[in-house]
Amino acid sequence: MKRRSFLTGASVGGIAAAASALSAPAIAQSRVEMVMVSTWPRDFPGLGTGAQRLAKRIQEVSDGRIQVQYFAAGERVGAFDAFDEVASGNAQAYHAADYYWKGKHPGWAYFTSVPFGLTENEMGAWIHHMGGQELWDELAGEFGLKCLAAGNTGVQMGGWFNKEINSSQDLKGLKMRIPGLGGDVMAKLGASPVSLPGGQIYENLVSGAIDATEWVGPWNDYFLKFYEAAKYYYYPGMHEPGGYDSLGLNKAWWDKLSKSDQLLIKACASEETDFMMAEFNANNGTYLRKLTQEHGVQLREFNDDVYDAFGRASAEVYEEVRAHSDLANRIHESFAKARSDVGAWMKLSEGAYYAQRNRVLGL
What is the three-class DSSP state of 326? Predict the structure, then answer.
């Protein structure tokens, strides 16, 4: 019995020792390093803090097994260098607005937001249920990337102007910071679009290097202090009605992840999309009051003449995009069908409800 007990004990001890010897290397091998760069300033409310929150969340949900090292714009590479940094494999992920890459292919713009495009609710329908993600995968794959929605800012403001915009003629000669296809629309109307990362807009607006700028909405714009350089704040923005942020991942790195790690990252990105949108909605009203009541900002609505001009110019821009390539044309056609189908429903549902609720309550 003693011999049997000894052998049993020895066997258990041997198994435990073997398990111990194997567990350390196994744990070490399962650790994943993830460098994330972004196009946003560090700690910038909404966009910057959202990207930082996503990086932290991925690490937390994985119990630290996925180690995320986050770099804000300029800390590792410049804001607009994030794409190449990840596509090359020097970093594993970026957080950005994919319309920044439209110079590489115009199809990228559709996966942030485009003129007369989709709202946040409509974007979700297109991406998740109407073929949008598959087209995004096809486009991103051509550049060695995999992209996921990871934030949304909702319907954006039309921008800050140093003069009133009473007709489309007032846009001629205007130097305006506006990226994506929205910038192309402004160019059609005689403006000079400029693409600048968020951290450089204020200095250019104050110095007069640009005459106008769009950014996001009252919450973000308040912290960039645009009210110090321009007093006319226009709405609504035709250029970005539901701007998705993107978690862009190096595809070779992504493909090597386990399915569970891929699902974990997808879940964190999806959570951030919902959380960021809610955060913008919670803050924009408060900061709009601050801008108008504390800083004398004058709120203006683009009139029908200006909006009709935006519409005509947008139609020209879209024809040029469709002529670019088969993929660009397929992206546009898929987007346009979603805008028609989902938009018709939203007009009868949310649109009609907002109009009647606000009328009754005097909002």
Answer: helix
DSSP 8-state assignment for residue 195: -
Distance CA 285, CA 302 (A): 19
Residue 234, CB half-sphere, CA atoms under 13 Å: how many? Answer: 22
Contact 151, 145 (CB under 8 A): no
Element (H, E) at 95: strand 93-96
- What radius of gyration, in Å, describes the C-alpha atoms of the chain? 24
**What amino acid is encoded at 147 in this protein?**
C
Among 6-10, 48-52, 268-272, which is the least confidently predicted range? Answer: 6-10
Q: How far is CA 230 from the centre of its chain?
A: 25
In this structure, is the dihedral angle defined by the CA atoms of residues 269, 273, 275 and 279, taken in order, positive or negative? positive
List the Cα angle 282/304/308 in 5-degree steps.
Answer: 105
Cα torsion for 298, 303, 305, 307, to the nearest 10°? 100
* pTM exceeds cut of 0.85: yes
For residue 338, how many C-alpha atoms fall within 13 Å in the half-sphere facing its CB? 25
Q: 72, 42 in Cβ contact below 8 A?
A: yes
Q: For residue 156, which phi and psi values (nearest 5 degrees)?
A: -90, 165
Please state whether 251 falls in left (phi above 0), alpha (psi between -120 and 50) or beta. alpha
- Give the per-residue pLDDT at 28: 45
pLDDT digits 0-9 by tens, 136-159: 999 999 999 999 999 999 999 999
The helix/strand/coil state of 157 is coil
Burial label for 275, CB within 10 Å (0-12, 13-18, 19+), is: middle
CA 50 to chain centre: 10
> What does the block give as tokens for 349?
């549902």
Q: How many CB atoms lie within 10 A of CB 94?
A: 30
Q: Which helix (H) or strand (E) holds 250?
A: strand 244-250
- Helix locations, 171-226, DSSP H: 180-188, 201-207, 218-223
The two tokens of residue 35 are 């460098």
